[in-house]
Specification:
It contains eleven helices and 15 strands. By secondary structure, the protein is α/β, with parallel strands linked by helices. The model has no long low-confidence stretch (mean pLDDT 94).
């Protein structure tokens, strides 16, 4: 799959801009703070329906403007897809697929797939489990709407259970009323757990291969899924028992201490935990390898490679690793941002300056 054209209107620092992309390597070149990353954000927005930079979508509207839009044309193996997003300061965002309005963001997922990586993705390795759950959720949701909706329902059930824990005054009353939320929670948790387990089982060997290639084969990357352990028994039954066992503690603290909302990934290089003991270079390469592994997962599930969006990755890689990275990603359409491009590899160069893009 690939993106053919992107039209921006009052998005970030762009007034009106139309960009055409080649099916291979596309390089957005320019100084910092000129609008290169904004292009990647717009593409990701069209694919996922959310920004990787902000939660408040109205922040993407250009200063002193009321409405912004992103129009994009994508090609898949058997069809083209037109996706349009409209942001209005006075109302919720609107999404259209092939000219038809959709009501839920979930309907957008799966029409096109994309993988995004920037130096900020170090959070995937260095920071809290929230980042690693987000990594799993975005990737799995792109190709599995059932997962996306199960995750949304789980979060709502969890919020209701936590609310009950906080507002109930008597523990005896809580024991009589919480069972309905416990059973709903474990039903959804099992579905999410199985999808995450399958995802990591497939991702881990691809990530190991990518890391070995980029780093020159000196380190072995290992990724382990850390979730509720049913110890080989029935997942729902064991999790239900665990919820009941921890109920008094949950009542005391006012939140649910057991469940897939506490999942994590353990990441090792040569048996050593990268988060605590890896260098920044090792952490960066591990995070990049996990992102590159997503290419193969999506290819396996959809039959096509996703679009790869790489933001400012060259600044942390020497020339040899830059070449290795682009060789590894040559099978998919790749859009890269950088301050300068000196590699002798065929690419469409797009010069970005102060919200204007021209062929370089």
């Amino acid at each position: 799959m690939k993106i053919n054209t992107l039209e921006l209107k009052n998005f970030r620092n762009y007034g009106r801009q139309i960009v055409k992309f080649d099916e291979g390597l596309n390089v957005l070149v320019g100084k910092n703070a000129q609008g290169k990353t904004n292009v990647l954000e717009a593409i990701f927005f069209a694919v996922i329906g959310k920004s990787f930079k902000v939660n408040k979508e109205k922040e993407t509207i250009k200063w002193r403007e009321e409405i912004a839009s992103i129009k994009s044309n994508f090609s898949r193996e058997y069809r083209d897809v037109d996706i349009e997003l409209i942001f209005n300061k006075a109302s919720k965002k609107a999404i259209k697929i092939d000219g038809v309005s959709i009501k839920k963001t979930g309907e957008l997922l799966g029409n096109v797939n994309a993988i995004f990586f920037s130096p900020q993705e170090l959070k995937l390795v260095k920071e809290s489990p929230d980042e690693r759950r987000r990594f799993m959720n975005i990737d799995i949701s792109q190709t599995n709407k059932r997962y996306f909706y199960a995750l949304n329902r789980y979060e709502k059930v969890l919020a209701n259970r936590n609310k009950l824990l906080k507002i109930t005054k008597e523990f005896s009353v809580l024991k009589e009323t919480i069972d309905i939320w416990d059973r709903a929670l474990v039903d959804l948790a099992e579905k999410i757990y199985l999808e995450r387990k399958d995802f990591i089982c497939k991702l881990a060997p691809f990530a190991e291969k990518a890391h070995s290639y980029i780093s020159g084969g000196n380190e072995k990357l290992e990724i382990v899924y850390d979730s509720f352990d049913a110890k080989g028994k029935d997942f729902k039954e064991e999790m239900l028992k665990a919820l009941q066992k921890n109920l008094e503690k949950d009542f005391k603290h006012g939140f649910t201490s057991i469940g897939i909302h506490r999942d994590d990934l353990d990441i090792f290089l040569n048996g050593v935990e990268v988060k605590s003991f890896g260098s920044q270079g090792q952490q960066r390469t591990a995070a990049l390898s996990m992102k590159l592994a997503e290419l193969e997962i999506i290819k396996e599930r959809t039959g096509e490679y996703p679009i790869l969006l790489l933001d400012d990755v060259f600044s942390e890689l020497d020339n040899e690793r830059q070449k290795r990275l682009l060789a590894f990603t040559s099978r998919t359409q790749t859009i890269i941002t950088c301050t300068e491009y000196a590699l002798n590899l065929k690419a469409k160069l797009l010069h970005v300056e102060n919200g204007n893009i021209k062929n370089a």
